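Good morning,

Both structures are done.
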Amino acid sequence: MLTDDEGIEELKVKFLMVKAVPESQQIIELPCSRLSLTLIGRRSAEYAGTRYLKRGANFKGQVANDVETEQIVWDTRSSPDFKHGKFSAFVQRRGSVPLIWSQDPATRGVVGKPVISIDINEPHAQTAAAHFRELKQKYGSPLIVMNLVKRREKRRHEALLHDQFLKAVKYLNMFLPRAERIAYLSFDVARCHKSGNVLSKLEEIGFRSVIRHGWFQSFPMLYCHRVRPNLLLNDYEPMCSMDGRFLLQHGISRTNCVDCLDRTNVAQFGIGKVALGIQLYSMGFAGEPVLSPASEVCRMYEDLVDQHGDTLALQYAGSQLVHSIKTYKKTSIIQACLSERSRDVIQTLSRYYSNTFGDYDKQNAINLFLGLYRPNSAGPHLWDLGTDHYLHFPINFKTKADYCAWFIDFDNLDDWEYVIGEDVHFSQSAGVVFA
C-alpha cells in the first residue's frame, strides 16, 4: 500500500487530522455562563523528525518542530452547536530557526551540547524567505518573530544562530514597505531568568503583539467597549470581516529557541495569557483585559500550556519539558533550583537516552509513515540508508523565487504587480526596477 500514491496521500491527511485533535481542554464555570477553554496543537508533517536529526529548515522553508497553537474560548450556553455559538480564538506559531543548520550528536561527547553548524550560508536568505513567504500568505501581516536563543555566552554557541537569523531578517526587510516589515525581537530568556522577571517581560511583549495582531471573535465588538474603550486597548485597531460580523486576527507571532520546547513554551504562555485576558474581556466575561496570575483561570491555562508543551517535547525530544512554567515563576533562583532540580535531572537523562538510542529508528518510522521513503525492490532497504538527507533535500530542487521580490510566490500567481512607495517597483516581467 505504501507504494501507491493515493495511499500515501491518504496517510498524510490522516496524520495531519490526528495532530489537529484538541490536546487539552478545561471548563470554566462562571455565575452567568459556562466557558470551554481548549488548546489545540497542529504539527506540520512537511519536515517532521526528531530533535538532533531535524534542525533548521529544508529548501522549501519548511522548518523542524513546526507547530501551530490555537487557544479557543467557547461560550457553551450561547448555542447548542458549533455553527452559531460565541467563540474567540488566538493563534501562535513555533518552529526552528529557518536556516540550513544542524547539530551532530557525535560532537557532544558524554555530556555537553552538540556543536551548532551553519551548513549553507545564503547571502540572499532564500530559505528564510521561503518560510516567511508561507507565513505571510497564510496569516498576513504583521509577522512578529521572537528569537529566544542566547546572545551572550562564554563560549560562542547559540549566538551563531542569533547573528545569522538577524542578518537574514534585515536582508528580507530591505524589500518590504515599513508597515509590512518583519518585526524581529531578540529576548534572552536564560539571561533574564537570573533577574527573576521573565514572565513580567513576556507580558509586556504579549500586550504589544496581541494589540497588533488582534484576535478572532465570532461576533462584533460589544457596544459598551466601542463607546467606552479600555485604556490598555487604545492602540487596538480591529479588523472585521467583509460583512462586519466577525473580528479577525491578522498576522502572527512566531517564537523559537534552539529546540523550540522549554523556552518557547514559556514565551507562548506569556503571550497566550495576555491574549486570554483580552479574549475574556472582549466577550464580556471580564471587567478588565488583564488576567491575574493568582486567578483560577490563569492556573487552568498554565496547566493546559504545560500539558501542551510536554506532548510536543515527547514527540520531538523524547522526554517531557525539562523546564516547566513553574521554573520561571520563582522569584528566587535558589528556590527554583531546589524545587525543580530533581525533575530537571530526570527529564534530561530521559532526553539524552532517547536522542542517543531511539531517535534514528523513530526518524526512519516517520519517513516511512509520511511517504518520504517508498519501498522499492531495486533500491536499498530503509534500515540500510546511511542518511535521510536526500529524502528531505532533493538534489534537483530549484526555486523560482526572486532575490528581491521574495514575498511573491511565482508558482501560484500568474500576473502580479507590487509597488513600494515611489522608489521600488516590482512586476512579473521586469523583476525589480529601482526608480
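Second structure follows.
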Amino acid sequence: MPKIIVGHNVAFDRAFVKEQYYLERTKSQFLDTMSLHMCVSGLTGMQRAMSIASKKKSENDANGSFNPAIGWAFISSLNNLADVYKLYCHGEIKKDEREIFVSGSLSDIKEKFQESATYCAQDTWATFHILKKIMPMYLERFPHPVTFCGLLEMTSAYLPVNHNWERYLHEAQSTYEDLQKEMKLSLVHLANDACSLLPNNRYKKDPWLWDLNWSVQNIKFKKTVVKSTKTKRKKSADKSDGLNEKNQDPDESLVPEDTAMIDGVKDMNLNVIDPSIKQMYETASSLRKIRPFLPGYPLWYRELCDKSIVDDPDWEPGPYLISTQMRSVPKLMRMTWDGFPLHYDDKHGWGYLVPDVKELDISEPNDFPLESLLRLVECNKMDPTEAEQNIDPFWSIISEPNENRSEASKLWKSILGKNQKQEPWNLDQFSNGPHDVEIKGCHFYKLPHKDGPQKRVGNPLSKDFLSKVEDGTLKTWGKGQADRALLLSKMLSYWKNAHARIFSQMVIWLNNEELSEAIKHNEAYNESGLYGAILPRLIPAGTVTRRAVEPTWLTASNAYEDRVGSELKAMIQAPPGYHFVGADVDSQELWLAAVFGDSQFVGIHGCTAFGWMTLQGKKSTGTDMHSKTAKSVGVSRDQAKIYGR
C-alpha cells in the first residue's frame, strides 16, 4: 500500500527501517518537514549564526526575547523541531528526555519507558501540526508537482556495498596508522635536530626558530654544609640532651655515604662496586627531591615530551607528543610561502616575512636574523639539493663568515638587481598585508584564508592549503625529513578529516533470503560474499537554495593516488546483475543565471553572450564558461570552477 512517512529530518528515521535496505523498492515515501521549512522560511549561514548568537543573548535577558534588530527573528527560525514548532504553531515543546536516546542504554529506556514514549508521541504530534501549517505554504510557493516529487525522490537514496567496503576500511586505517607513525618519527627527528642548535645560540641565526621559547631549567643541588670537629662534638652533646634529627631540614642535609638515594639503587651496597661508579652514585645524594623536567632542554622541546611515569606502557622517551597541530611544527619544518619563511603572530595568525628593501642597514643589532633571511631570498634562485649531503642546506648557506657593512650592501644589490628602489618581487600579489609585527627590516603578510582576509590562519598544514602544497607555493626549505613530513601530511589529510564520518556509516548486511532473485541468479553472485547497503542521512533541501546536504557522501572528493582513503566513492559498487547509470547537469547554476538574463533581454535563450556561451561553449575547444574564466584570470580550469562561483 503506498504511503508517505512524515518526519523532521526523516532520513535519520529511515536509516532504522529494515525494509529500506532491500534492493526492491517499497511503496513508502518519506517527506522531510525540515526541508519544507528550509524551502519556505530557511536561514542563510550568516543569518543562522546571528540567530544563534541572539538566542544565547536572550537566554540571559530578563525579557527572554530576540533582538528586535534581527528582522527575520519572527518570520524564520533555526532548523530544530522545537524552534520550527514555535515559529509555525506558537507553542513550546520540551526536549529534556532526548538525552536518554543519545547517551542512555536500553535498560535506561526500559526504566523510563513512559517518559520516553511520551517524548516520542509529543514529537510526532508536533511534526503533524507543523505539516498542517507548512504544507499549504510550500505548495503555494512551489506549485509544480515535479518539485514536490523531487523532494520525495531525494529521500530514497540507496548506496549498495559489498565485501570491498570492509577491506577498504581495514586497509585505509592500517595504512593511515603506518604513515602516521612514520610522520611522527620524521617530526621527532626535526625536533631533535632543532634542539641541537641550543649550544652557542645557533638558533638565533635561524629565521624560523629564532622566536621559539629557548629558556632552559637548570639542576639545583642541596646546600652542602662543611662541619668541623667542634660542630660534630656539639651535635653529639645535643643528641645526649634528647634532641633528634627530625627537626633538621632534609634539603639542607646530605645522605649518608653508604646509601645511594636514587631510584632503583637504594639497597645497593656501594662498597662492592667500582670506585668510579660509586662516586657517580654518591652524587645523587646532592639532588633535591623535586627535580626539574628535562633540565638543560628548551621550553618548546619540553612541551613536546611526555611527563608520564616511565612504567606507563605507552610512554616513549623524546618529543613523541609532537603533531602537525602544534604551532612549532611549521617552524621546525622550515616552511616557506613563495620562498619566504613562515612566521606566527598572536594577532594576525600565520603569515610570512618579506624583507623591507627600504631598510638597507642590516648591521644594526636586531633580534630577528635579517641577514639570514637575505641569504635565504638570494638562495631561492638555486636548487637547495645542490648543498653538500648530510648537511642541512640552510646551515650550509648561513654558516659563512659575517660580512661587514659594505659586503652586506653588496648582498642587497645582488638580490635587488639594477632597480634598487623596488622589491625584486611583485607586492601586488600580497593582498593580506603588510602588517606591523615589530620585526625590524621585514614586512609581515598573512596567509590567505578561505573565508576572507579578515580571518586568520590557524594551521598552514590544514587541508585548506593542500592545493598550495601541490603547486609548490607552500613547501619546506630543502629536502630530507621536513619534505617527507609535508608529503605524509598531504597523504594523511583526507582520512584524518573523514575517517570518523566514514566509520560511523551504518551498513546493514543482507542474508541470502533477503537478496533479490535477480542477484542470486546472476553468474557473478557469490553465496559466501557480503552484500549490503548504506542509507545516507540526506537532507533534500538543506539550504535556502534547496541544495541537498549530507556530511560524507555529498562532500566526497575524487580519488587521488597520494590521498589515503580518497577512493571512498569507488566503494559503492552495484550488486551482481545491476549497473549504475549516471547523469549530471553541467554548470547548473550558470544555466539558470543565463536563462534569467536572457528572459530580461530579448526573451530568447542564447540572445546574450552569457546565454550563448552556455549553449555553444565546449570544454574541448576551451569556449565554455570555466575555460574562459580561467584564461582571463590566469588560473587552471579546476580553480576557476571553485573560485568563480
